[in-house]
Design a protein that fits this description.
Strand content: 5-15%
Distance between the termini: 50 Å
Helix content: 40-55%
Strand order of the largest sheet: 2-3-1-4-5
Number of helices: 20
Radius of gyration: 27 Å
């Protein structure tokens, strides 16, 4: 708006350091940074350092100053500009989630997830409607990483319009750097004021206590380098101190007693007596599988991504349901993803990292045999995560699934429910049948002893994570025939409704 003064316009960009002062400070900070990298690695602290800023603001030069003191075995630099075709076919943050650092490592981003609200916005790729949730998704992403222990440092490199034009001209006049200057760079220089306004908004909407922005005056690159190293050193010192304090605290082991009558139950109200005859089952199965195969073709043609998540009691029939879902589908466009305990590499990342890596691209179907809900079920009950970790997981999972549906994904989550007697009968059948004995383990029997605990956890999971766009469907599974048909009908109905809404299919 005319007459308004924006925050970035107020920054004094003429700050400088003399050569001698720079070398003295840089040498001292470099030595300290090398020690801190080793200490952070020893304490399993993952670190993200990202650089955004105006064109020609010196990101490459400053990053070189930053990484020079670091052990190259402990960091990686990502230069991310336009997404690949494979990345375009997935949720926007997918390509960043899979690049998040493991514990003890440093990942440095030259351009980042902010491109969506900066370059893409300027080019008209990100429209105003998408912008509404783009900022929220960025903040959610950073918060999830931060509360899990990742240190996030964000630097915005700021230069004047005059200095930007000077640097672009110098690069153009040098044979070794002329290729780096494009018409778009000069176009952005002409739109300098417009870019400042856009960056002002971005900084205001994404500056948080857990991932704050630091604005770096970059007209003088040596000043900028010393400022950034000073900020990194101070932040890592604080992270190590916070880790030390965390390690000295013990999590409370006593829960306050709660009147069971005041607990909300979901599973106790499920009618498990419903069933189908074998003939009813076969007749319905044939029709539904044919419909699903036709819908898959439309899904592929129109690049509609689908996620089906299966959870349920042991022996509730997840495998049988998945088999009937996929029997008539084109195997080139679906994948069944069995989830087991995380391996060492997966444990070194945020617990959602391994699931983000498997998200299907547009036009494909992913079927999960157990899911990210393990955090609030088995990990909660068996003590593989803390109370704080599983409590915050409900919100983290909701936000992840909201990002999927914002990106056009259909998300359906099935809880296959059987009673305790039916489970016991199926366990015994597996034990007595040589062809099924591989399906039963001692752990399955041990888990039965915690049935009541798991039931409470499932009730809470469904209540807290069943949303309009990613609902839980409780499937009455004492009758395998009934369960399989209900799952197929639910998937067919959801795909049909979605395709009608976007105009691919006409009304029935």
């Amino acid at each position: 708006m005319e007459g308004m003064v924006y925050m970035l316009e107020k920054i004094d960009l003429e700050k400088k350091l003399g050569k001698d002062e720079f070398h003295k400070k840089y040498e001292s900070l470099s030595e300290e940074l090398g020690h801190l990298q080793r200490d952070c690695r020893a304490n399993n602290i993952p670190i993200i350092i990202l650089f955004e800023g105006l064109g020609a603001s010196g990101k490459g030069t400053i990053m070189n100053y930053l990484i020079h003191p670091l052990d190259p075995r402990g960091f990686k630099v990502f230069t991310l500009n336009q997404p690949t075709e494979d990345e375009i076919l997935r949720p926007y943050l997918w390509r960043y989630w899979i690049k998040t650092p493991a514990k003890g490592r440093i990942h440095i981003f030259d351009h980042s997830w902010y491109h969506r609200v900066l370059g893409d916005r300027l080019e008209g790729i990100t429209d105003e409607k998408e912008l509404e949730f783009a900022y929220d998704e960025i903040v959610d992403f950073e918060e999830q990483l931060s509360v899990d222990g990742t240190v996030i440092m964000k630097f915005f490199l700021h230069i004047s319009k005059k200095e930007q034009a000077k640097r672009l001209k110098e690069m153009e006049e040098s044979k070794s750097t002329a290729w780096r200057v494009t018409k778009k760079d000069w176009h952005y220089n002409e739109k300098y004021k417009e870019l400042l306004v856009m960056n002002d908004e971005m900084l205001a909407k994404t500056d948080t206590s857990f991932a704050p922005w630091d604005i770096v005056e970059s007209n003088d690159l040596e000043y900028a380098a010393v400022k950034i190293l000073s900020l990194v050193v101070n932040r890592l010192k604080r992270a190590l101190e916070e880790r030390k304090n965390e390690n000295s605290k013990e999590e409370p082991k006593i829960d306050i007693p709660f009147d069971e009558r005041l607990v909300t139950h979901v599973l106790q109200g499920v009618d498990l007596s419903v069933s189908l005859t074998k003939k009813e089952y076969k007749d319905k199965l044939k029709v539904l599988q044919r419909k699903l195969a036709c819908l898959q073709n439309l899904m592929v043609m129109n690049r509609i991504p689908v996620i089906l998540a299966f959870e349920g009691w042991d022996a509730a029939g997840k495998g049988g349901n998945i088999k009937r879902l996929t029997e008539k589908l084109d195997p080139r466009n679906y994948e069944v993803i069995p989830i087991s305990a995380p391996n060492d590499i997966e444990k070194a990342h945020h617990y959602l990292w391994r699931f983000w890596r498997t998200i299907p691209k547009a036009g494909n179907l992913a079927i999960y045999d157990r899911t990210w809900y393990g955090r609030v079920l088995v990990e909660r009950i068996e003590g593989f995560c803390t109370k704080q970790e599983y409590e915050r997981a409900y919100s983290e999972i909701n936000r992840m699934e909201r990002q999927f549906t914002n990106a056009g994904y259909i998300v359906l989550k099935f809880w296959l429910h059987i009673d305790k007697n039916e489970q016991e009968a199926r366990f015994k059948d597996r034990q007595e049948n040589p062809e099924k004995q591989w399906k039963i383990t001692d752990e399955d029997w041990r888990n039965r002893e915690k049935w009541d605990e798991y039931e409470k956890a499932v009730d809470e999971m469904i209540i807290r994570t069943s949303t309009v766009n990613a609902p839980w469907i409780v499937v009455e599974a004492n009758s395998k025939y009934y369960a399989r048909i209900k799952v197929l009908e639910t998937v067919v109905d959801a795909l049909t409704k979605y395709m009608q809404e976007i105009g691919i299919l006409g009304e029935k």
